[in-house]
Structures are given as C-alpha cells and as structure tokens.
C-alpha cells in the first residue's frame, strides 16, 4: 500500500508495524499529488477563459462599432474606460 521509503523500513523494523509517521508522510504525498492535479485543471480553465475573453472582446467591439457608425473612436474609448474601471475595482466576490 505504501511506497517503501527508507524511513518506512527503519520505523517498521524498530516497531514491527507501520507507524503514524508513515501515514503522515503518505497523506502529505497524496495531498501534493492532488494539489498538482488541481493546478493543472486550474490553469486549463484559466487558459480557456482567456481565449473566450479575447474572442468576446473583439466581437463586442465590432458589434458596437457597427451599431454606432462614424463614432469608432468614442466606442473604443468607452469600452477601454469601462474595462479600466473594472480592473481598478478588481474581483467582486458575492
């Protein structure tokens, strides 16, 4: 069940059974493995979110420029202003 690390072999030979220290090391190893797996998923989700954000930003900007012809500079300035305000406010956790 456990990987036989040197500290496992020594503690088993002294006590004759698997000690609590071995269980702690095993829990730490499994926790690190789970953390690495969660980080992979987190970065995959962040990457996908970035791609969607880039696509939607371009689409929204082009839709607004089509709705307001001749006011492209104002549309661009307005969207940049709103985006900047959003970055200044930061994440809002509800």
Verbal overview:
The chain is mainly α. It has one domain. The protein has helices spanning 6-15, 20-67, 72-89. The mean pLDDT is 78.
What's the SSE blueprint?
Elements: H1 6-15, H2 20-67, H3 72-89
Q: What is the helix/strand order?
A: HHH
Strand content: under 5%
Provide the structure class: mainly alpha
The coarse silhouette is: rod-shaped
Ends apart, CA distance between termini = 43 Å
Give the strand tally: 0
Number of domains: 1
Low-confidence stretches: none
* Helix content class: over 70%
**Total DSSP helices:** 3
State the major sheet. Answer: none
Radius of gyration of CA atoms, rounded to a whole number: 27 Å
Overall mean pLDDT: 78
Structure characteristics:
mainly alpha; single chain; 81% helix; 94 residues; 3 helices
In brief, what are we looking at here?
It contains three helices and no strands.
